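Final report, closing paragraph on structural work. Over the funding period we assembled a curated collection of sequence-structure pairs, and we close with a single example.
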Amino acid sequence: MKIHTRKKYLSFLKFKRDFQQFGLEKARSYELILHWLNTRLSRNQFLLLSGILVGLTAGMAGVILKTLVHNIHYFITHKVHFEYQILFYIVFPFLGIVLTTMVVQAIFKGQDRKGISAILYEIAQNSSIVSSVKMYSQIVQSAITVGLGGSAGLESPIAVTGAAIGSNYAQTYRLSYKERTLLLAAGATAGIASAFNAPIAGMMFAFEILLTGVVFTDFIPLVVAAVCGSLLSRILLQEDILFRFYTREAFDYKNIPYYLLLGVVTGLYARYFVIVSQKVEHFIQKLKMSPIRRAMFGGAVLSLLCVLFPPLFGEGYDTIKAFTNGDTLEIIENSLFRYFEFRNFTIIIFLILVLILKAFATPFTIFSGGNGGNFAPSLFAGGTAGFLFAVVCQQIGFKEVPVTNLVLVGMAGAMSGILYAPLTAIFLIAESSFGYDLFIPLMIVSVISYLMAKRFSPISPELKSLADQGKIFTNKHDKNLLFSLRTKDYIDFQSQTINVNASITELFEMIKNGNKNTFAVIDDLGKLKGILNLDDIRPYLFSKETDSLSIVKIMKAPPAIIHQENKALEILQIFDDTGYWNLPVVDENNKFIGFISKSAILIGYRQLLKLYSE
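Its predicted structure, as stored:
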């Protein structure tokens, strides 16, 4: 046993020496250990370990951000007398947006891409490579914005932070595009799981919004990342910070008509929210102002809204908890409505105005210079719509209205319609309320709202923004442009090849003198036999036992082969199915022609789109 352990230790020391000679002498000890483990463990084993490490790190980032913002909110809303709170509602939301803009301009050089669309962009356009700055920039920006009262959510920044952590982890250990995308999604999953203490909802978020085409074995890193993030949240966060609801009614099938109607209500509201958000975004983008002045304008609008309607301050989860706990007076006690005689009519008018203005408060927060997302706003709006619907039903004369249940399923309905994520919404509310017996009403409301949203627009707002920039293809015009592209114009005819009978020494020499990362293995007739990339070759670079190695042993079959007659749209579909960014092209006799890259086709499409739009 001691001899075996000593051999492993000597093996690690040799790896460390070779690794440092390879040019990474500045690598930290724990990085060297993980690099060594990467050479010793199987792919699935290392991905499992990676999922745990990424999950713990992203989960901790989520815990830190939630705790920081909660303490700021608690001070403003609980430790200050009402008269001073009005002053705080005037000053802090304005200050939050302005300070965030100043930080972005001064520290992060104006790089303010945010929200779920930021993750989708990196996956679609940047090979899932996320800047290391995003591992902390989103935390700083969203803590300032939402902590000081911005009417947005922390979950999207947490997801972007987790995605950046996963992507940079994968880059450090030189994992392939597929593994990099998987760990990016695992980081986002852990972030969402820690934010809501809902691991299943975190996984559904990754499957519905971030990942497509992964095989079942690849789900394991997502599972462990979600569990790690959720456990950290449960252990470290205080009870009043957690997104938890303990009061609800038992499901009664006689209440199904309520849920059917609420599904329609939340579906209509979701469409209203999306349209208003888009119009506000376009309005702000057209303002001919400097970033600071734009932030001051947006901050002033937000401060005015928060003074008139305090529930618009921050994420709004305390308001939703007040709905479920029956604390109706608490909802308006800090607003100017407290001076009116309290009646049900008063609360109805107040909530209608809150719902209408929430659709303005959130985009003004985000697009004028703040940082946040639509997770919390959609949940807040859905819960408010559900409570308002329940109060109206009671006023009409209906008895035994399931008020708490309508609040809970209303949150799922609005989230499904705004984010186009019904499964995430269903499991999120089920986990947060321990209401697994509410699956039927959750599914009814979420599906109705989602189908209504799809009827109005087939793709989500985040995807639409990418589609408008040519990052994804969603309509007939896009496909017509793609069919007009000629495949041969995007083939790299200077691709490097090596004969299948060549020696390992010849291969190493070609790597040393060449500038390619992927190589085609061909026979004497030029026919494709396999492919090699640096990830396949790296484990053998420092090996002294090269005599027994051959090209045949280390090459692999390409995941797919492109033919000259394939159209650009077909090729892009093959790229999406395989998860690769470079594939070999052959002629009708299987002779290798060159490699074609997904990036080259996308660049060609964007150039053509620009030409047609001029």
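The first strand starts at residue 491 and ends at 492. Strands lie at 491-492, 497-499, 518-522, 528-533, 562-563, 582-586, 592-597. We thank the funder for supporting this effort.
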